[in-house]
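Work Package 3 (structural annotation) set out to generate three-dimensional models for the target panel prioritized at the project kickoff. During this period the team completed the workflow that converts sequence records into discrete structure tokens, so that structures can be stored uniformly alongside our sequence database. As a representative example, we reproduce one entry of 120 residues exactly as it appears in the project archive.
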Amino acid sequence: MTTAPPSKERNLLAVIGDEDSITGLLLAGIGHVNEQGKKNFLIVDAKTQPSTIESAFEELTERKDIAILLINQHVADRIRPTVDRYQQAFPALLEIPSKEHPYDPSKDSVLKRVQKLFGD
């Protein structure tokens, strides 16, 4: 029996974000629960502990079925050291805005790495 190439295994989006962002993405069809009962999303509110966010981030970035991890930028700010240390190509990490918090390119860890590569 052969194993599927990595591109075939990674076929899901995952998201860590506020309720509005998660709701919109779930309505768009990204929701998934695997055989172990693990969801591909985490709803974060003001009461969510940073340790819970970090734990979900670590779990989602270690999964082999996730191609892209979306995270609201204001949520990423709550675990910024963990987000900045993430260096893997897959799952790709994208910081996204939310309804209440606009996108700030100066905080985006991926954009910072790209700028460093180009010497900006």
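Residues 50-62 form the longest helix (13 residues).
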